[in-house]
Amino acid sequence: MAGDGVCAGAVHAVKEVWERRIQTLTEDLKREKEFKQKLVRIWEERVSLTRLKEKVTRENGRVILKIEQEEWKTLPSSLLKLNQLQEWQLHRTGLLKIPEFVGRFQNLLVLDLSRNTISEIPRGIGLLTRLQELILSYNKIKTVPKELGSCAGLEKLELAVNRDICELPQELSRLTKLTHLDLSMNSFTAVPPAVLSMPALEWLDLGSNQLQQLPDAIERMQSLHTLWLQRNEIACLPESISRLQSLGTLVLSNNRLQDIPACMGEMPGLRFVNFRDNPLRLDVTLPPAASAEEEGEQELFGLQFMRAYIQEARRQAGARLAPDAEGEEGRETNGSIDGSETHPSAGPAGSADPASPDLAPADPSSADPDG
């Protein structure tokens, strides 16, 4: 029995030794694998950095990273070594996300990542206080972070053709230098309140959304000179639109407008309009052009059309009022002589009561023969 105990103890000791050896070997293999992976990452980072350096150019005194139609689904952290970059221009690269470290590029003036597959804008974007242009059109962005409102130097923002953006945070109203905003081909059902509060905005595209009306507060956009609203569901225009003193271009084609408000004829700064493909209630045809040159300049549903439409609407309104005025005048005539009312008990004007001697008919023989 004692021999069996010694034998079991020896086996147990040998087992422990082997288990420790296996564990040590496993840990060594794991460390070796991690070391190799680290070396691979370092090598890949160096290769990526070398490739990125080859894409850096200088144009008009700016340092620009320019990549076109070359796959870069992610941007390596080694890009931080190129912190002197002033512009990123990456188009059709398949980029999936904007790296969070983008906020460390304090010299960045232009960030153009259009035509990729980016799904979100990182909050770190708000650290780019010198950024002047942010172009993220043709991506898959659904929401806009409030931190974007901290980009105090931003002058141009393009978020067109992201399809699913339906609102903007109110913090974007702090973009006091923004002059150009493209929100076309998204899912807005109303003009975002933040947009109405952008004091410097001059150019706005909200085409191909789902707008049903314009707010009365649109008159607050006094710097606006170009407004694109094509391909929406707008059924009527507020009178306040006529108070946009700087507006020169207004595109309203492919909407549901049934009328053109007369107040739009009082917009002296308006130079170009387009009402094409709207179910307008009046059928207005422009007079034939006097010359071929005039015909070439004549827009079928443009400014001349708008003025002719307003004029025709006023003419028809006046024609409708005329019969009503005649009817009212007739009613007044039936109830008065020379504008004075007749007492209800009196007979018709010019008649005499035969029972009254004071009103007996005069003797015909006393009448003047010369009449």
TrEMBL record:
Keyword set, alphabetical order: Cytoplasm, Leucine-rich repeat, Muscle protein, Repeat
Record has Cytoplasm as a keyword: yes
SUPFAM superfamilies assigned to the protein according to its UniProt record, in alphabetical order: L domain-like
Limits of the Disease resistance R13L4/SHOC-2-like LRR domain: 78-186
Biased composition (Polar residues): 333-343
Chain intervals with Low complexity compositional bias: 344-371
InterPro entries per record: Leu-rich_rpt, Leu-rich_rpt_typical-subtyp, LRR_dom_sf, LRR_domain-containing, LRR_R13L4/SHOC2-like
Location(s), subcellular: Cytoplasm, Myofibril, Sarcomere, M line
Protein's UniProt keywords contain Cytoplasm: yes
Chain intervals for the UniProt region annotation (Disordered): 318-371
One Gene Ontology CC term in the entry: M band
Pfam families noted in UniProt: LRR_1, LRR_14
Superkingdom of the organism of origin: Eukaryota
Assembly and binders: Interacts with MYH7 (via C-terminus).
Function: Component of the sarcomeric M-band which plays a role in myocyte response to biomechanical stress. May regulate expression of other M-band proteins via an SRF-dependent pathway. Important for normal contractile function in heart.
PANTHER family per the UniProt record, alphabetical: LEUCINE RICH REPEAT CONTAINING 39, PTHR48051
The protein's name in its UniProt record: Leucine-rich repeat-containing protein 39
